[in-house]
Amino acid sequence: xxxxxxxQVGIAGLGAIGLKVARMVDAGAVPGVTLSAxxxxxxxxxxxxxxxxxxxxxxxxxxxxxxxxxxxxxxxxASIFMDVAGPAVNRGRTFMPLxxxxxxxxxxxxxxxxxxxxxxxxxxxxxxxxxxxxxxAVGEIxxxxxxxxxxxxxxxxxxxxxxxxxxxxxxxxxxxVFRGTAREAARAFPANVNVAAALGLAGxxxxxxxxxxxxxxxxxxxxxCVTITSDAGEATMTMSNxxxxxxxxxxxxxxxxxxxxxxxxxxxxxxGT
Length: 273
Fold this sequence. Notes:
Elements: E1 7-12, H1 16-26, E2 33-39, H2 43-49, E3 58-59, H3 65-68, E4 71-74, H4 81-90, E5 94-97, H5 100-103, H6 108-116, E6 119-120, H7 130-138, E7 141-150, H8 159-163, E8 175-181, H9 182-188, H10 194-202, E9 209-215, E10 222-230, E11 233-241, H11 253-266
Parallel strand pairs: 1-2, 1-4, 2-3, 4-5, 5-6, 7-9
Antiparallel strand pairs: 7-10, 8-9, 10-11
Helix pairs in contact: 1-11, 4-6, 9-10
């Protein structure tokens, strides 16, 4: 006999990340967790994508996900972030956002979660070492720096590049396209560097976390390098992620990170902070 707590999951967005997470949950990758609902811009396409699932979920509007699930995972464009986040937090659900850059512009959600009993959990995603950053933040962190390098295709279409007339087509050598804070980086590259916002939330905050973004034609992976100094020590952590075949702006590991986060909720043993 088991006393495993069960959860119903709702997923907003069935793109490269959302669909992979949905498939894994439906296949039983997370004990005690079932897929109950999904939402996407094209409902007919969404219904087609989940039609072969062992237990096809409800197809509903973004704001209705929290009516069908106690865990709501946001894998949608940042522009519709609040359509998912607002109802989930207001109903006291567990909310997992992947548009972390949008979250730092709506930090009032944290106070609202405190009032409703909701919990906002940010998956580690394409980064490494957020557990170390959180541990260092218990003491005093002196500095945090993120250097993110992507093949040019991984940054294509970013608003910052368009607005500033930065052409990365046909690059022959690495080009630094941005320097600033994590908050500024998240706004400049809303679909490309959510890792910067996650790092900011884990450590010094988005306004004291320094970020460089490089378009690098010499690499075929998304590379993140975090350098941190604190009263507990120093660390340099580098990770090279294989881009998603469906969407080169994100890495294959992001969906895996969401599933790993879900497993923490029901696992009898958890390693790491």
